[in-house]
UniProtKB/TrEMBL annotation:
Signal peptide limits: none
Pfam families named among the record's database cross-references: PknH_C (PF14032)
Protein name: PknH-like extracellular domain-containing protein
Transmembrane intervals: none
Amino acid sequence: MARKAPWYAVFPLLMLLLATGCGGIEGSARPAPGLKPRPLMGETIKQVLLDDAALGKILNQRFKADAHLPPRFGGPEKLQTGFGVITPAECAGVTTMTVRSAYSSYDVKNVARESWWNDGDPAKVISVAEAVVALPTATDADALFAKFSDQWDGCNGKTVTVEGGGLNFADEISDVRVANSVLAATVSVQLSGSSTGKRPEARAVGVRGNCLVEVEITFFSTQSPSDQGSGDPHTSAIDIAHIMMDKISALS
């Protein structure tokens, strides 16, 4: 039975109540022609994650870390155990980043994840979560990406309910698409009993070598033209996934 991630119910809820790679990097190192990239494992995968400065340049707003959500690194135990019962369970991987049930049939070697939050100024984006999941081989990663693509396509247009801990959500999945080794979707999140409106989340999963990258960008439900940032629910998560994928190539 799939469960929703714990952070999902705490910090974004507070925000709701208040207000509610393959684009290349110039100069990226590439394996020599004919040289097979080596699998990326261990603490090296942490170098794939972007810091607050890099995200700030991409999204044109400032971010900060949160002491309650420190960076995570380890084995499969670092996948999300979840919060709340998700129905239908096969759509849990769309609405929840790195949820354990989505990876349960694969031999996950390492997981690295980090979250960044709006620094308090009026802006478009509440938070950015990014993760890298290392599998034994590129074949394994490609197979899992293909599985995710089929699952997400089957969830397109569905409303996923999340119940538990006194908080109920209805997550509408839309705009599922795949291009250039990146799978993307928009999730419109509605907290039961809230009058603040649906909160958009941009989701993206990319594959490069033996790794999958995951990105989730949470946007404020209401925005004004004066808000900082250039974040776009349709493109920003994809852009970040491509940059992370290119970092994998540079490290392989």
